[in-house]
Amino acid sequence: MTAYEELLAFSKETAALSGVVETLGWDQETMMPRKAAAQRGDQFAALESVIHGRNIDPRVGEWLAKAEAPDAAGAAILREVQFNYDRSVKVPAALATEIARVTSVAQGKWVEARGEGDFKAFAPVLKEVVRLRREEGAALADGGDAYDALLEGYEPGTSSAQIAEIFDAMRPRLVDLREKVLAQPEPAGVSGTFDPAVQLNLSEELAKTFGYDMERGRIDKAVHPFCAGHGFDVRITTRTNPADPFNCFYSTIHEVGHACYEQNVRDAYAGTPIGRGVSMGVHESQSRIYENQLGRSRAFTGYLFGKMRDAFGDIGIANEDDFYAAVNRVEKGYIRTEADELQYNLHIMMRFDLEMALIRGALEVDDLEAAWNERFEKDFGYPVDTASNGVLQDVHWSAGLFGYFPTYALGNVYAGNIYSALRDAVPSLDNDLSKGDLSNASAWLGENLQQHGALYTPRETVAKACGFEPTAEPLLAYLETKFGGIYGL
């Protein structure tokens, strides 16, 4: 075997082990007995010890020094392996193992604390998570900025300064549009009680409509919706609320966007370092374009209105136009995952600033709840009522995912660019969506972006799909046009 072939075989074995970890994580959030948390933490730690050992194996460095790529895909594989190797060798094995153990335990404690609205019960383990991630960030940064080093793991090639510049450009127009919208009469929402079992049945139908292959996936319930897996095993979760069926439907469509990205990567890349989404920002572009530009469009909501009437009968909405306004209603609320398109990015901007301060040591965990509440009231104009609706609402910090949050807003920016190109490429899009036909949209996204996996860098992936360098302007123009129309601005 050549050095390249040996490296590829070794990488595939490591990827298989990482897949086991991901499946265990899915199980932890959906089916694992509550009292198994400590045992699962030990399992994660043991597996992470093995995986980290493989990631820093000296042979990887030797193979990289000798390997010659056979083609463009091979060159991308070497790029990804080199990136992972360079990061892994900076992190001590004991630290990587301890992070896996503590974050596993922390997620269980977060679920309990969120249910009780008790941040103080969660704070001790969060302190441990923050301490470990600060240590990891410092090791990765090698004298540079610890937060940027963590961000690099989710969005290679992007710095916090670049993210801040994008956010600073977006914030004034978003705030101005929100003020104009909130000054208008609020559209009516749906009314009634919506059977969770019926919600789940319809959400599965919607998942299939958007292209999710149920023979390579499944849908379960979890506290926080997520997608897990790659290739031939890509699982999603959703949640239900008897008073709010949109929570279930749009969480499902959102996660289907992630899942379709993974399911549509070329089979030839399966198990290799390029056989999955290239970054969380690009991943989020797919979930957000499925959920919002497609799923919340006037054309598709007209189709969904009929589906909901068939499933639930009278839902308190008289016609398709009113239903479109209800789906896209801008209103006060606390929960990021339930926020409308207009306010969603403001939630992310707040979290971005808070987690940067945590990792850089400018904010401590004991002061986090107060800092969250103060910032939320400043940004949104009303106080947080409970910790469950505030600092405890997201799973990310319990999982140690510092640097992840800004990729959500970056994904929205990418989605704005991709949607602009999609509309130009598929003239029949609105007519298709009005019939619940996502085939042309799905095919275009699969062909122009999803099939490539990590063949290209994140910005290259988006630029190749939309035909121009991504900027925030298409997203802002889309939001101003959409909400200006709904609210008569």
Automatic annotation (TrEMBL):
| Reaction catalyzed | Release of a C-terminal amino acid with broad specificity, except for -Pro
Q: Per the UniProt record, which residue ranges are transmembrane? A: none
Q: Which GO MF terms does the UniProt record name?
A: carboxypeptidase activity
**Cross-referenced Pfam families, in alphabetical order?**
Peptidase_M32
**What are its E.C. numbers?**
3.4.17.19
Question: Which SUPFAM superfamilies does the entry mention?
Answer: Metalloproteases ('zincins'), catalytic domain
Keywords in UniProt for this one? Carboxypeptidase, Hydrolase, Metal-binding, Metalloprotease, Protease
- EC main class here is hydrolase
Q: Which family does it belong to?
A: Belongs to the peptidase M32 family.
Known function:
Broad specificity carboxypetidase that releases amino acids sequentially from the C-terminus, including neutral, aromatic, polar and basic residues.
**Identification of the protein by name:** Metal-dependent carboxypeptidase
Q: Which organism is it from?
A: Marivivens donghaensis
